[in-house]
Amino acid sequence: MRESETHKVTVACSFCKKKKSDAADVLVVGPGVSICGDCARLCLHYINQRVTQMDAWPTDKPQPARADHSALQYLQYRILTHYTEACLIANGKMPAPRTAIVYPTYICNQNCVWCEYAQDNAENRAIMPDERLFQLLEDLRDLGVRGVEFCGGGEPTLHPQFTEAVRRTHKLGMGIGLLTNGTMLKGELAGLLVDTASYVRVGFDAASGEMMDRVKRPNSPVAGFDAVCANIANMVQLRNERDTRLLISMKVVLDATNYGEVEDCVKLALKLGVDSIQFKAARLCDTELTADQATHVGTELRALRARYPELPIVGGVEKLNMTTQCWLTPLQVTIDPLGDVYLCCYYRHRKESHCIGNAFSEPLRDVWYSQRHQRAIRAIKPLECNVLDCRFVHYNRIMSQLLTEGQGQFEFI
């Protein structure tokens, strides 16, 4: 449904008392209680500010024990700040996406054994044209996007104009996130990200060069273990020197080959000085964890959280399954190097049903508010979602409880 069809009401925010005329900017959460988007964003600002204060300690100064890093846990509840948009979706209206997931390229300098994009990386090797990328960023801003996460697909930092894309994203007033293998995090790009980005998550998947060669299979020493470790250590040091709000974390995908290095990965994270480490299970590959291996990893992660309280250890290898149809995909938009627009980033095994148009052949706004988009959402099949582990399992559960089961109790302090 197009923006012009959004129902108009007049209601005052219970917190700032400002009257709003656009229902898309107001959240009514209970009898006589409402909160506007500005106040919701202000709450998130204070949460993020507290997270930064806890995690940006310079490495050359004594660091206090971080046994209480509960503020980081708030990040998993950022979905609550999307309540306004969720209400619109539940009422059959289409909100603007808050986040854009952009794949600048389908090329990569590593060849991970579990990568579902291996065929695209080997055969397609598409790179988004420079001017297409720059125009896309402006179109996303105009659509209402507030944060861009660059990832892939391929390795996003291999795009020849990636540094300029980051610079333009920042100038357009959108937040910046990056999922990367860390091979290009140096020089001008590293400094720019330290100054402008909200988070950088680096996929390590190994605690040694030998293991990285086995599971990530870098194509050169520049993409190898020692080079990535040096890049991250230097970036952490630069972040601490400049005292910025950038959060730098490690991500480790586990399979039957590397699951024995869990504690070594935690030790590496501590050595490099990153803010947190996340574990996930490899899916859709021949080396997927067995049930016994997954149980072993789960037990070990619980022990490690107690043994290393100074480092947030998040995630796990338990299977996440969607039990109801996913309905929150309009909170974000995913666009690949070819300009194809998808419901979410887990489209590789269902491209035809998840693609809603192409941002290079028609206006992105038209794609977003199209009937094809609405039909694609209604056609989502939970069984197809469940072949991978999606964070929207958690998000759908929370929002369903608040909206359909009335468990929010927002009428109380």
Model description:
This protein has 413 residues and is an alpha/beta fold. It is 38% helix and 16% strand. It is built from 16 helices and 14 strands. It has helices spanning 37-55, 70-73, 83-90, 118-124, 130-143, 162-171, 187-196, 209-215, 225-242, 262-272, 291-307, 351-354, 364-368, 371-378, 382-385, 392-403, and strands at residues 8-12, 19-22, 26-30, 33-36, 99-102, 147-150, 175-180, 199-203, 247-254, 276-281, 313-315, 332-335, 340-342, 355-358. The protein has a ten-stranded mixed sheet with strand order 11-10-9-8-7-6-5-12-13-14. A two-stranded antiparallel sheet has the order 1-2. It has a two-stranded antiparallel sheet with strand order 3-4. Helix 11 links the parallel strand 10 (276-281) and strand 11. Helix 6 runs parallel beside helix 7 and helix 7 crosses helix 9 (225-242). Residues 1-9, 21-26, 28-32 and 45-68 have low confidence and may be disordered.
